[in-house]
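Audit log entry. Action: structure prediction of a protein-small molecule complex. Ligand: zinc ion. The ligand was supplied as SMILES and no pocket hint was given, so placement is left entirely to the predictor. Protonation state taken as written. Sequence taken verbatim from the request; no trimming, no tag removal. Recorded inputs:
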Amino acid sequence: MRPVAARVFAADWVLPIASAPIRAGAVVIDARRIAWVGQLAQLPARWSTAPVDRRTGVLTPGLVNAHTHLQYTGFAHLGQGKYSGFEQWSFAFEAAYRAVTDPGSWAESALAGARQAVAGGSTVVAEVITNDQARGALAECGVTGIEYLEAIGQVEERWLDGSRADFVARLGRPATVPFGISPHAPYSLDGAVIKDLMAIAADHQARAHLHLGESALELSLYQRGERHMLDIYGDLRDRFDLVRRGGAGQDTAAYADSIGVLVPTAHLAHAIYLDRAGRDLIKRRGTQVALCPRSNAVLGLGPAPVAAYLSEGHEIAVGTDSLASSPSLDLMADVALLASIAREQGYRYGDLAQRLLRAATLGGAKAMGLDGRGYGTLVPGGPADLAVFDIEVADQPVADALVARGQGSCTLTIAGGVIRHDAADDVSAAGAGRTDGTLGD
Ligand SMILES: [Zn+2]
């Protein structure tokens, strides 16, 4: 590959995340990697002739959106609504999903979503893929992540009678970013199917990602086999193992553990309805949560126990979820809501903003197993992924200012050393220079 000339990006503040904020900071990008991070005034002589792109505001690592479904970007009308709970929303969602007759529309929808995510500063995405037509959108926008191939609505009998073979065939299709495996949720798949999916993931050294504790009704299914959770499946509802045997007599986290999903290579979306024992169990297992507060609010769910996760020492991540349940794919809007929920829940420590910014960057990278490759932080040798937020810091701590005012303020997104979004000249994500977008380049 032809080397790209080194370039300096400077901002009022640089937040490397893994180290202290730098006032009047700068980042050197050379050959698509970060070559140096520090104060612009200390720029080493070897880059003194490199062009400097000066920006107002705060420069951070590219954000990590740790839970979304970009293929549902076309369902934005659903995410603009208000619901009385998960079940009411899921009926509306199912109707919209069944009404899609052109599978090609998933590709368009996913691409539109990827562009929106990039415009909000995200450069790494945990993308759940239900329909394979949606694969490829991240690479198309020059960003990366993991495409978690989803299995949903399977009882063991049907799984073994063809569905399993269909699923395994998906793993062999051409991929533009690494694939992961998403057993949708422990309520929508028999436990035996989930165990099998986790074994398939382990065989392929693939990450796993699933929904857990999103509905208040899940517990009644795992404990006693109550089937309201499964009403959207019609007649299939009564063939689920948990319904047939009257539940597992376990709460949500204990049941999830019994079917093998609480492992360090998996992360959980939502994790609202987990009590202290459940949270402690997932922490002991090394399984992270990705909180999606705006999606939870749209569905009329309770807030996740944000303050508890933080004060109990969890490394958390943040996701937008999809436009089918959220007003936008701007991750910083979820960070702002997490901060206000944590304060309402009594979190009083001064590190709240730093910890939430870490969740939206390094925490997400860890949840996806990408931190070892330098994602989620600004470090020499790491991937040249960064975002700039044009905000006024004034005399507030910079992290607090960014959490409060970051949403809607992303003016620059760089991924793989290439500008993917620039508010100054309105460069569209895909038009900014297509590259392979894979992690292995
Ligand atoms: Zn989801």
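Audit: result stored. The first strand starts at residue 7 and ends at 14. Confidence is low (pLDDT under 50) at residues 429-441.
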